[in-house]
Amino acid sequence: MITVGHLINGQTSSDGGRTQDIYNPSTGEVSKQVSLASKATVEEAITAAQAAYPAWRNTPAIKRARVMFKFKDLLEQNVDKICALIGEEHGKISHDAAGELQRGIENVEYACCAPELLKGEHSKNVAPNIDSWSEFQPLGVVAGITPFNFPAMVPLWMYPMAIVCGNCFILKPSERDPSSTLFIAELLKEAGLPDGVMNVVNGDKEAVDTLLTDERIKAVSFVGSTPIAEYIYSTASAHGKRCQALGGAKNHAIIMPDADMDNTVAQLLGAAFGSSGERCMALSVAVAVGDAAADQLISKMSEAMKGLKIGPCHDANNDFGPVITRQHQQKVFGYIDSAEAQGAEIVVDGRNPTVVGHENGFYVGGTLIDKVTPQMDSYDAEIFGPVLQVVRVDTMQQAMDIIDAHEYGNGTCIFTRDGEAARYFSDHIQVGMVGINIPLPVPVAYHSFGGWKRSLFGDLHAYGPDGVRFYTKRKTITQRWPSAGVREGAQFSMPTMS
Question: What pLDDT, on a 0 to 100 scale, did the predictor assign at position 208?
Answer without folding.
Answer: 98
